[in-house]
Amino acid sequence: MRIWIVGSKRMLSVVDGPANQKLNTILAEDGDVFSRTIYGDFFVDPTEPDKMGHMRHVKIVKVMNVVIERDAAAANCGQ
Known about the structure:
By secondary structure, the chain is mostly beta strands. It has one domain (2-75). It is 14% helix and 42% strand. The chain has 2 helices and 4 strands. The chain has helices at 21-27, 72-75; strands at residues 2-4, 11-14, 36-46, 56-70. Strands 1-2-4-3 form a 4-stranded mixed β-sheet. The longest helix is centred in the N-terminal third of the chain and has 7 residues, at 21-27.
């Protein structure tokens, strides 16, 4: 799972933790984890120091204002 920081070119890599288990369940509901996009306010804790040019690993601490969207490309795949 990746989190894009809006307004930047930065991506964060989410490591396994109890707070993201529910998100993983939602993403895998139809067997295709790439068929949904989740928008929201994600509060994260880094699991390593920031390193320029590298994707930082984080754990999700809290999620608010969640919107789950089925990707149009994935929805039209079977047609």
